UniProtKB/TrEMBL annotation:
This protein's name: D-ribose ABC transporter substrate-binding protein
Domain Periplasmic binding protein: 34-287
Species: Endosaccharibacter trunci
Pfam families according to UniProt: Peripla_BP_4
Family as reported in the entry's similarity comment: Belongs to the bacterial solute-binding protein 2 family.
Signal peptide: 1-27
Main localization category: other
Source taxonomy: Bacteria, Pseudomonadati, Pseudomonadota, Alphaproteobacteria, Acetobacterales
Amino acid sequence: MKKLALLAVTALSMGAVAVAAPGQAHAAGGLMTIIVNDPSNPYWLAEGNVADAEAKKLGYTTSVSASKGDTNTESNLIDTAITNHSVAIILDPANANGSIGAVKKAIAANIPVFLVNAEINQAGLAKAQLVSNNAQGAALGATRWVKVVGQKGNYVELLGSPSDNNAATRSNGYATVLNQYPDLKKVGEQVANWDRTQGHDKMQNLLQAHPDIIGVISGNDDMALGAIAALKEAGKLSSVKVGGFDGSPDAVEAVKSGELQYTVLQPVAVFAKKAVDEADSFLKTGKTGAPSEKQLFNCVLITKANAGDFVSPFTLKQ
């Protein structure tokens, strides 16, 4: 019996060492649930794929699903994560206000939540909120856009989903730069909800109302690419310059071809991986290893000059 007891103690001690060993998942393993917005958009597809790969690398099982920006769907997915005894949730929140309840529900079930890409309007709930520095990225894009279109003329803007703080942050960032040029006048704007088809249709409407525009500044790449399609149909792409935001593969190709003047790369591959690493650290040590809950990741301007340095998904060569 003493020998068996000694073996048991030894086994437990070895298990404790395994838990503490860096770079390995905690001894219990477990399910890490990853909830993105809409994987039909390459940005969110990359977000989910990178988080999934990193979690598996660290020894977790994973479940990747999508809310499609709907808070009811998101809430149901959180319920499923709770039912399936997830050890952590990586969440791209559907709504800055509307997702707070879903996060609280997970926390009440003792499941730590790590937010990526978008924020919620309440601090102290999620263990981490990892997002692009959208204000910095918008300033980069708007500064480049002015160089392309010049300092005089009428332009329009395509806006992302109003429920996503990123949409307002980018639009405000654009305005901070563009308002310095009084002869650049924004004559119209449309909400296209980050969507390429809506970007196309809203661009058609804007062109009908404002046929003399010289440029389009867009809150993301999919809306910009939709606008480019509409401008091509109208025979106006050569005279109307379009700028994007995300750094999606399609956008980078459009930059290379000259159809899109630039895109602003969001380092989604970097912070999606980082979110999983912080979840892993928290599960092992009770700490994320980050200095604060909210973490900003600077964006990078991609133009025709450096587009060849782009490596999919959403990264630049080191």
